[in-house]
Amino acid sequence: MKNYHGGVILAIGSSAGASVAVLDHGRVLAQWRTAETTNHAEVLAAAVAETMRQADVDGAGLSGVVVGVGPGPFTGLRVGLVLAHALAEVWQVPLQGLCSLDSLAHRAVTQAPAGDSAGASGGPVEPGSEFLAVSDARRREVYWARYRSRAAPGADHAGPDHAAPGHTGPDPTASAELLDGPHVSAAGELPDLPAVGIGAGLYSESLTARSALEASWLPDAVELGQIAQSGSPSVLREPLPLYLRESDAKVPAQMRPRMAAP
Amino acid sequence: MTDLSSTSTRSRESARPLPQAPLVLGIETSCDETGIGIVRGTELLANTVSSSMEEHARFGGVIPEIAARAHLEAFVPTLRQALETAGIQLKDVDAIAVTAGPGLAGALMVGLSAAKGLALAAGKPLYGVNHLVAHVGVGLLESSSPMAALPENTGALLVSGGHTEILRVVSLTSQVQLLGSTIDDAAGEAFDKTARLLGLGYPGGPAIAAAAAHGDPTAFRFPRGLTMPKFEGSAQAPGKHRHNWSFSGLKTAVARAVEQFESAGREVPVHDIAASFQEAVVDVLTSKAVRAAREHDIHTLLLGGGVAANQRLRELLTERCAEAGIELRIPPVSLCTDNGAMVAALGAQLVAAGVEPSGMDIPADSSQPVQRISV
Fold first, then answer.
1. Nearest chain B CA: its distance from A118 CA (Å)
2. Count of CB atoms within 10 A of residue A175's CB?
3. CB-based contact B360 A46, cutoff 8 Å
4. What does the angle CA A50 – CA A56 – CA A58 come to, to the nearest 5 degrees?
5. Rounded to whole angstroms, how far apart are CA atoms B83 and B89?
6. How many H helices and E strands in chain B?
7. Do B105 and A75 touch (CB under 8 A)?
8. Which residue in A215, A227, A262, B12 could disulfide with A201, CB within 3.0 to 4.6 Å?
9. Contact A107, A159 (CB under 8 A)
């Protein structure tokens, strides 16, 4: 398993909107994002070029690439994945995937205390507490996973004040442990736990959002990079999409055995 | 932001002399073939294709989502193999070319995003090219000279599962004209649907051809679409569909024939229907294509697309071109079906002609018109 604990990495997310970040030891050097869901193929490559220019880094200066592998709408997800594959192949740097929902969970446990940020959030999830990260799967369903907040072993002080993604490095005292998922299902079928992510906002009748702010969150490359550099390689995955659904294609009636072939 | 990156590419490109025989890597993902080809000018160095055809077989046709999934998985292995076959590294190439359209949107986007990644990472100019014009570019790879040109007034008949078109190519890099096309199903699609109807399996082309070999092509008189005088008009006063095709009526006629036998409790004469269907497709394809060529002063006709593998089409087109005094060129089947080499070949022509590279922000265009040779 490749270790990203150190060096400069490029992170790409395309599971909902699209996002790009360049990080050095968890510190964000440059970042870009859009909530637009339908133009990844047009904007994402140019965004990578621009974000790397802003971070003043080129391919030779990278120690790796990480990419969100979903779950998310397939077409946009593939655009980010194949872009990451092509970049890593040419630069000859390791490429690793991360579940996109991990980004939401990481933000939930490392965010600023309630009242500190502009929109009222629920504050960081208490160590030991369970919660859900939920994103939009369309067709009246959500992608979701269940996590538990945990303090880092040996942590004995509160983390630094820490705002929305990208402004500071990860809070070293907290991480989110994946307990179950990712899955795709109707919002009404999820466990009754506080939820973060846009899915909680879309299905507020079925899900209990931790706060209105947290119910608007989309996965982001900043946290994908921070998780990759947090020194917990067990969360890294193969850089292949988590579709969770088969294609919709049905075998047409005519393809079923009907008349003897000559 | 996107302007910045594309501007720098353009200025760097114009600052150095145009390569005589550019080394270009081409990427094709518009349908179910992941193709990566490498050419130096008109010299073919590699043509690597990974097909997801077998995964579509049980559906009797290409499923876009399955095709797009396969492109992502096949991309890096296909790239590595193409580079190894050509004996080059990506840093050696002068440009990256990619099919921008027309084709299946989700499939196109995989190739396009990959091509942008290669161009960005290797610092190479990107050319988003037209899939149909790229099929014509194959005609150059046959030549022994390092940077051949197409003969003046070349025409191209493209027949595949997604396309049925006749083009007039004034200049491969600047002027291509659509003379006619199907107004409904593509010819290859008609083969697939008819094979499904007859229980012959997928892909339909080879299945129909095999069954037709044992049948009588005159057993049924199936319709030749858009051949009535009101559609065709005359050379002086051409009708609206003089050079267009339609295959949906043919497909329906085959279905009716099958139903008649089935409802009468008689065995369906699969061989005769297949042979008569194939004859109807090939007859109307070739007669209209050759007439369009004659009336547009085309002296060389290039055949492209997967249906070019059909033996009866080759025979009848050869015969009718000879009668009309038209030189017919049929590339090897591996270059007729979708492939990356054709995309690279067109890319090399664009580089040599000094055409501006594409920006990093170009979209995939599933219905890109043939007049848009590069984007």
1. 28
2. 24
3. yes
4. 80
5. 6
6. 13, 10
7. yes
8. A215
9. no
Note the ipTM here.
Answer: 0.91
Instruction: Give the per-residue pLDDT at A232.
Output: 75
Report how far Cα B290 is from the mean position of its chain's Cα atoms: 18
DSSP state of A253: G
Q: What is the pTM of this model?
A: 0.91
Amino acid making up residue B65: E
**Cβ–Cβ contact B275 with A under 8 A:** no
Lowest mean pLDDT among A63-72, A150-159, B96-105: A150-159
pLDDT tens, position by position, A193-236: 999 999 999 999 999 999 999 999 999 999 999 999 987 767 99
Q: Which of residues 200-229 of B touch A (CB under 8 A)?
A: 200-202, 211, 214
CA atoms lying within 13 Å on the CB side of residue B134: 34
Rounded Cα distance, A227 and A100, in Å = 11
Chain B CB contacts of A44 under 8 Å are 113
Which DSSP symbol is given to A4? Answer: -
Per-residue pLDDT for A6 more than 90? no
- 3 state SS of B37: strand
Angle at B245 between CA B240 and CA B248, to 5 degrees: 120
